[in-house]
Design goal:
Shape: globular
GO cellular component, one term: plasma membrane
Order of helices and strands: HHHHHHHHHHHHHHHH
GO molecular function: chloride transmembrane transporter activity
Main location: membrane
Subcellular location: Membrane
Strand content: under 5%
Distance between the termini: 73 Å
Structural class: mainly alpha
Protein name: Ion channel protein
Largest sheet: none
Number of strands: 0
Number of domains: 2
Oligomer: single chain
């Protein structure tokens, strides 16, 4: 029998199409990024303006009509308790109950259903206007992410869902801070750890465009500013280095106290079993804390830190320390009893008060250095995000000469907070690490 002839060689594989040039991939993303950034800023602006108008009614028009002091202890307790009751009742009525438990959410999470967004924005307005010690960043980001994801998947189904999440998050964060740099820094910590095609800056390109659009929209309409107009820093000295290390570490320790109290407070309010009861009780506690720390410890804290900065000698070291502790406690209570809101802005107020406390104790410590280092430390503990903590601390004083000391102060503060629990719980109520 003749031997079998050898099989013919397999044909070579068809050549894969060459990847699209980066420019051709990135240019089509510019217009969607700009649109998402502008819309995110407008939603933030609308919610903020509505909350401010309602705040004027609740804290000025109504107490004046009743002949009650605007920020008397009685009015603070009554208003915060009523705010808790109103938010609790609203959450019972709105679709989706305002989203997941806020103690389990971070700044940027997976998209929620769009039907949840109206109720989430409603209870956010109520909390901001009622004096709750939370900022707008978490719920506004969640709402914008949900809308962008839903509309993006509807009108551009071929685009990856992660793109719309990144664009909405960047647009919102850019609008919140008035600069796209904040969005780039926050997203860089996420994007750097994610596999994906393209260089890092290619992946950051579209979110940076959205952040720029959001920041410019907010700046052109509302002109936000984080600068506290503190005395200019004269330059680093050896004594300032020691002060920076100690103050940042003290801020980190204050933040860690709130972090460790977080799951305990959550269990206490969860034991009440009914959201309306938990929120009403939380509002009562917030009112009592406001009566203890003064009216400056109410609200998100961004306007209130400017009051402190306008008269840094108007309070004693003990009073500054008391405001820092009360604000940290109010942040913990508000974020665990069911109010929807963010933790960055209240933590900034606690850090600013702690910084002024350090300056009041040791007059030789420049207020710019003390404030920026204290804010850096407490934000590292609360957010566990190094770039956003460093950036926020720097923009408060708008002085590049403090940056070397801030970078040095980051080191001991980070050693204190790394590996510790985060100010966020998992689905079982246990702290994330």
């Amino acid at each position: 029998m003749a031997p079998a002839s050898p099989a013919p060689p397999a044909p070579p594989p068809a050549p894969s199409p060459p990847p699209a040039a980066p420019t051709r991939r990135l240019l089509p993303l510019v217009l969607p990024a700009l649109v998402v950034g502008v819309v995110c800023a407008l939603i933030l602006l609308g919610v903020s303006l509505l909350a401010e108008r309602l705040q004027d009614v609740l804290w000025e028009t109504l107490p004046d009509a009743l002949g009650v002091g605007r920020y008397s202890s009685l009015w603070m307790v009554a208003m915060l308790t009523a705010t808790g009751l109103a938010v609790g009742l609203a959450l019972r009525a709105v679709p989706g109950r305002g989203g997941p438990d806020p103690a389990t959410t971070g700044l940027v999470d997976a998209p929620m259903r769009p039907g949840v967004v109206p109720g989430l924005l409603l209870v956010t307005v109520l909390a901001l206007a009622g004096g709750v010690s939370l900022g707008p960043e978490n719920p506004i980001t969640a709402a914008n992410v949900a809308l962008a994801f839903w509309l993006g998947r509807r009108f551009a189904p071929g685009a990856p869902g992660e793109l719309w999440v990144a664009l909405a998050a960047a647009g919102t964060i850019g609008a919140l801070f008035g600069t796209p740099i904040a969005a780039a820094l926050i997203l860089s910590e996420t994007l750097a750890s994610q596999p994906g095609p393209g260089a890092f800056w290619d992946r950051l390109f579209a979110p940076l465009a959205a952040g720029a659009a959001g920041a410019l929209t907010m700046s052109l309409i509302a002109e936000p500013s984080f600068d506290l107009s503190l005395p200019a820093y004269s330059g680093p000295h050896w004594g300032d280095l020691l002060a920076a290390l100690l103050i940042a570490s003290a801020g980190a320790l204050l933040g860690l106290l709130a972090v460790y109290a977080f799951p305990v407070a959550h269990r206490v309010f969860a034991a009440l079993r009914h959201p309306v009861l938990a929120l009403t009780a939380g509002g009562l506690v917030l009112g009592l804390l406001g009566a203890l720390g003064g009216h400056l410890t109410l609200f998100k804290g961004l306007d209130e830190v400017k009051v402190l900065a306008g008269d840094p000698d108007g309070w004693s070291a003990a009073e500054f320390a008391g405001m820092a502790v009360v604000k940290a406690a109010a942040l913990t209570v508000a974020a665990t009893c069911g109010f929807r809101g963010g933790r960055i802005f209240p933590a900034v107020f606690a850090g600013v008060a702690l910084g002024f406390c350090a300056h009041a104790l040791v007059d030789a410590v420049p207020p710019s250095l003390a404030v920026s280092c204290a804010v850096l430390g407490i934000l590292l503990a609360v957010t566990r995000q190094g770039w956003v903590s460093l950036f926020t601390a720097a923009v408060l004083v708008s002085d590049a000469s403090v940056l070397p000391l801030l970078c040095a102060a980051t080191l001991p503060a980070w050693l204190l907070v790394t590996g510790r629990p985060q100010m966020q719980l998992d689905g079982d109520g246990k702290p994330l690490r």
